[in-house]
Design brief:
By secondary structure, the chain is an alpha/beta fold. The longest helix is centred in the first third of the chain and has 46 residues, at 35-80. A hairpin with a 2-residue loop joins strand 2 and strand 3 (159-165). The strands form 3 sheets. The chain has an 8-stranded mixed barrel with strand order 8-9-11-12-13-14-15-16. The chain has a 5-stranded mixed beta sheet with strand order 2-3-1-6-7, with helices on both faces. A two-stranded antiparallel ribbon has the order 4-5. The chain is built from 18 helices and 16 strands. The structure holds ligand C2E and calcium ion (2 copies). Residues 399-400, 420, 456 line the site of one calcium ion.
């Protein structure tokens, strides 16, 4: 339409020009005395000029209208590409935009960070979905305020991608992300509740870390994952070593799945003795991976990797089934270690009980050991699982007490039956007066609460004597017995029976 207007305007201009020429000619003619012709040509020139003016005005108005329509259609298209809640770009549009910038051969650097809000589920559960939504809006607004030039995309529920076109410094990018997290940590009122928001950020750069969008995003995601594992609420820059770790993890996961099928997962047992009379009280079941080429692999090498997937659940089931089978031979209760990841599964207690039932083992012959790092929130899944287990008669022990973040407050959160004092306290019993005082105070508290205290890692007679003086209930450690197979513990004949 604009083009045809332009064409008509050009014709008008040509006509006006022609009119002027005619006019000039008329003036010449008038000089020679042809008066009527003079008037006619003057009037036609004015008429054409007016026509031209009208066309020009019309053209301007039309141009404005077209520009407005253009703007409107751009706005409609733009809003269709945006997430209705946060105003960030939709995943597909964000990816398309990023794809235009990041590709092999592109010289334009692009800084990218992957933001994942921490604990959105807890916020939704605690204060309702509207509060969760408001938190997401606040998160996006904070990013937009501190990085006004950034292209922001909502990649999933609580995940955002942030791209800074032209950014070539990972340090600057990391600092920016840190400023964003700092701003989020400030108190904010969300639906009448004063709260703080926390997020974890993974940072990667193109073309330094990646030459295409998939690579860029998965590398930032890997950095983010490392941040989540190291405790969240932090910014982590991608490092090529992470990729090596991840490949290793994937390799171990594949091998572990095979190990479960090939019966390479074995259980050994370490005895626990009562300090009075050194009577055998129970055994602790400790898992081993009997690898066909690499020999025996310690749990510290594969449990953390198993915990990254459902392998930990399958591993836990295999260990428990073996424990049920060995209970009949060992004769005393057996403690099994349960990972925080297992305890977080809503159906954990039920499947645990089903395995005991299947093997016809009563719950009071089992002790579940959990590390003190487990989040013990009243009404949380973890507490529900533990409570359900106690209903089956299973005893619950806090493992490695004192090694992590546990405080005495932890003892209030659940009615534990056993405390296992971390072996680092036992190791320093001789030199550290504080360690002795702590164990002693803990024994007093435990006695008042009717909780049994087991000291782990007893390696010397001196440690054993001191623990006896302090008043510990039971002991476990290399001095008294190393972990061994059922066959080694009860003798070949009995095990074969
Ligand atoms: P943990 O539960 O604290 O187990 C005790 C660890 O201390 C065992 O190591 C044991 O062999 C070692 N130990 C026992 N006495 C002594 C001692 O006197 N001195 C020293 N220096 N060490 C001693 P292990 O078997 O390598 O197990 C390491 C950790 O792996 C366990 O620590 C537990 O957290 C985890 N784990 C073992 N089996 C399982 C399992 O079936 N499931 C899960 N989720 N975790 C397991
Ligand atoms: Ca343990
Ligand atoms: Ca322990």
């Amino acid at each position: 339409m604009l083009a045809s207007y332009r064409r008509v305007s050009a014709i008008c201009a040509a006509l006006a020009g022609a009119a002027l020429l005619v006019n000039a000619a008329a003036l010449v003619v008038s000089a020679t005395g042809h008066g009527r012709l003079v008037w006619f040509s003057a009037v036609s020139a004015v008429a054409l000029a007016v026509l031209l003016l009208l066309w020009r005005n019309g053209y301007r108005t039309m141009r404005k209208r077209v520009a407005r329509a253009d703007e409107e259609s751009r706005r409609v298209i733009d809003s269709a590409q945006r997430d209705a809640l946060t105003g960030a770009y939709t995943r597909s549009y964000f990816l398309a935009t990023l794809n235009e910038r990041v590709h092999r051969g592109s010289s334009m650097p692009v800084g990218y960070f992957h933001v994942d809000m921490d604990h959105l589920k807890a916020l939704n559960d605690g204060h309702g979905h509207a509060a969760g939504d408001a938190a997401l809006v606040h998160l996006t607004a904070t990013i937009r305020r501190l990085a006004p030039d950034a292209v922001i995309g909502r990649l999933g529920g609580d995940e955002f991608g942030v791209a800074l076109i032209g950014q070539d410094s990972k340090q600057a990018l990391t600092r920016l992300a840190e400023r964003i997290l700092e701003a989020l940590r400030q108190e904010v009122k969300i639906r009448e509740h004063v709260t703080r928001i926390s997020a974890t950020v993974g940072v990667a750069l193109a073309p330094d870390d990646a030459t295409n969008v998939d690579e860029l995003m998965s590398r930032a995601d890997l950095a983010l994952y490392c941040g989540k594992r190291s405790g969240r609420s932090m910014v982590v820059g991608y490092d090529p070593d992470m990729l090596v770790d991840e490949r290793h993890n994937r390799f171990v996961q594949r091998e572990l799945r095979a190990a479960l099928l090939l019966n390479e997962i074995k259980v050994v047992y370490q005895p626990v003795y009562s300090i009075d009379g050194m009577k055998l009280k129970s055994y602790e079941a400790l898992v081993r991976w009997q690898h066909c080429h690499r020999g025996t692999i310690a749990p510290s090498e594969f449990i953390p990797i198993a915990e990254q997937s459902d392998i930990i659940d399958r591993l836990g089931e295999v260990v428990l089934r073996q424990v049920c089978a060995d209970l009949k031979l060992l004769g005393v209760p057996i403690a099994v270690n349960v990972s925080p990841v297992q305890l977080r599964r809503p159906g954990f207690a039920a499947s645990f009980a089903a395995i005991l039932d299947e093997a016809n083992i009563s719950g009071d012959r089992i002790i579940v050991e959990i590390t003190e790092n487990i989040l013990m929130k009243t009404g949380g899944v973890e507490t529900e699982n533990l409570t359900a287990l106690t209903r089956f008669g299973v005893k619950i022990a806090i493992d490695d007490f004192g090694a992590g973040h546990a405080s005495l407050e932890y003892l209030r959160s659940f009615a534990f039956n056993v405390i296992k004092i971390d072996r680092s306290y036992v190791a320093h019993l001789k030199s550290g007066r504080a360690d002795r005082a702590i164990i002693s105070a803990l024994c007093d508290i435990a006695q008042a609460l009717d909780i049994e205290v087991i000291a782990e890692g007893v390696e010397t007679q001196e440690q054993l004597d001191t623990l006896r003086q302090i008043g510990c209930d039971a002991v476990q450690g290399y001095l008294l017995g190393r972990p061994g197979s059922v066959r080694a513990l009860v003798g070949n004949s009995l095990a074969a029976a």
